[in-house]
Amino acid sequence: MEQLVQLLTSAMNPALRAEAERCLEAAKQQNVEQFIVMLLQVLLAQNLNTDVRMMAGILFKNMFKGRGKTNEAMAQKWREIDDQTRLNTHGAIFKLLLDPNPEMQNLGANIVSNIAIIDLPLNKWPDLMTFLLSDITMAKLKAVVAILEDSSFSVISPFINAIFMASLNLVNQNLNFVPSVIKVFENLVCFKDIMKDFNYRGQIEKFLLTAVQHQNNLIKMSGFQALAVFEELNIEYVFEIQHELAIISNAILATPSNGNDDIIELQKTVMTFWQNVAVFEDTHFKTEVDTGDVTVKVFPVVQSSLIQLVGMVQSQTEEIDSNELCFLAQDALNAMVSVVGTAPLEDLSTTICGAYMNQDWRLRFQAMSVFASMLVKIDEKQSIVKEHIKHIFNLLNDPIPINRATAVYAIAKALTLYPDFFKAEAKDIANKIVSMIEDQFDVVKIAAIRFFSRLNDTETFTDHAFEEQSVKALMEMFIGGALKSNNAFLANQFLTSAANVVRGYESYYVAWNVLGLLYKNCLNTNLFKMELIGSTLVLIENCVLTCNKLFIQNKEVLNATFEIAFRSANASPEQAFMLLGSLCGLLYGEIDNYYPVLMKNVKQWLANCSNPSVFVFLMDLVDDIATNSTQYNNEDYVFIVDQIMKVVRGDEYTIAQKIELASVIGDLLRKCAAGINVYVPHILKLAFDLMSSECDETQESIKAKTDCEFAALYVLSTILQRYNTFPDLLQLDSIIYQFFVLCISSKHFGTHQRMVVFVSQVFIDFFALSTIVSSKLIKSEIMNKNIEKLVQRIDFFTPYGDDRDQFKRLKALIHSKFPEFE
Predict the structure, then answer these.
(1) How many domains does the chain have?
(2) Between helices 17-30 and 32-44, what is the axis angle to 10°?
(3) Can you list the alpha helix ranges (DSSP code H) found in 418-507?
(4) Are residues 7 and 104 in the same domain?
(5) Are 794 and 748 a contacting pair, CB within 8 Å?
């Protein structure tokens, strides 16, 4: 043990860490059981330095789980470990949870789950939950929370009732446990099977309603955070507590904060909760989820308090931060009115109009903000909107800077919704706001600049407000403002708005003029400094896409743009790669002339690329090069696939990034099959990992899961089509078959018809393999009727029309290869 203690001590010393970690890893690899025994000895040695014990515990914990992901190789070793070592480990963890040192107790709570999620499904830790739920301590309760976070319902279902009873009894005995018990219930609401049970759901609702009425604001906050999870996963049940929750919420929102941060944060949490409910109801209106019109019923209760908070502006001269109370109140008000409809604005219209002329600057601010927040499309009563805009136009001259800025934002929203309704006033409004770009206060300047950026998609208003010459002058003002400004944030606002106006106005004359201004000042101005280069490149890209053929025909400007992108890649890689990608798309076959220099730069950038986000953008550029070039060097793409496969399995890449990289691989496989066949098994494993990624019940998670499946199937489809004569493909029949089993057996299969059709198409590619008849696995699955069950499920969800014809081809193909298939 002394040698292990010395290594653990060295591992905490930066100068000795590398060698110590190497020795620790070697000891683990040599004999994992003996390594675990020694770690447990250190963990339980109360006479040792706490830091050494903690280091041993962290090392033990990370053996099983790192970055929130289970180490499957270690998990398998643990399943095979001898019973005595397992029992010793269980006993050591129990002792840790009762250790006199609170730090060691908490470490034990973190370790429990890592072992529990392996042993509980195997019934190899039968006394765990009994121990945790008896004589409960804070550490034991934290361990229960960790197990609930990491386990499936099937694992924890035998203990649900005991967890409920112990948690509720604990709250009645000691209020100090309330925050941890809230975390228990927050995790319980994640299980649909629990929430379907009326009795369990009722207990959860009752407890959380009690929590959000607690005298302690932090407990209230924890209660609302748990309710946020309840709402996200179980929106259909919120109506059961809407009345009580609305009253509680209003009491919180109406409480004067007097600068108390706890109250302010609680009010923000409450507003965010109701905003999310409203957004869900607005987004999923008349869908399969019946929410009971919660927002419509709650809004009258909280409306006055939200309006009051909208007026809680702090500064006359500074821009409102997106985290300030008044900003969040506007967002919540807008989200709820989007569901409720036009009635609130109609009812308050006279009062709001009167407040525009109030002597109190905050009331004028409040009036404009409430109008903008409550403004939704009301075609039949546009005169109401026009009356408000008449008043707000006068407030563009308000003596208070924040009010002038707010007037601009309010008018922008009205014009966005009603571009045709303000034809007569459009030029006067635009000219007035152009003049405000020169305002002495940045908050007003930024509002004026953003005004044109926000309206960039409203072609009708832009056409009425400006002729091409006027837009050209506005762009010159924006670029001039960026060149002259010493404020990087303001300069970026100028450039961003210029980019948006160019994209929205869609005039090659304006875009070409902007390019001329940029390239005239290209190398000796602020525009290509580090803090502005990203915005400058986005502006160039929008100009390039707008100019299109005119741009391609001018080789001098084209070459200059390539040069700018190449030179900017180190300072602003993502924007530079996007610009180069757009150039590839515009040039299409003509990109061949630039292929050598592009790939030379790609390889140089790859050599210095360690950021996952930048790497994905670079691979998207490679995809654009491959897609649009007619000539290519096969070795280049083999090299690229090799680079992707080296990094993509790492934990530092998100699921979304892995999906993007999988799509790039699919495109490269379609472009050049030769030389990449050696990577096929590894590429299939990557795609299978995407296919088998876990998914909870939130709409976002289900969508992400579907995106994973599409990306995985795209890669599989490409492999089946491009490598259908690959001799080793038959050896991969098991993993390929599991693609279909996982996808078709999913309870979400059928939600997206496009997925059903795509699966049918890829299934055809699979059974079209000439070697498929030699697969023992597929023969067995045919005989056991398992493939028939999969096909029946596809049949059930396949729509009529051409897609049915494809399905019939699938059945006929399987029958032709395996006559016993019916």
Answers:
(1) 4
(2) 120
(3) 426-435, 442-454, 459-465, 468-484, 488-505
(4) yes
(5) no
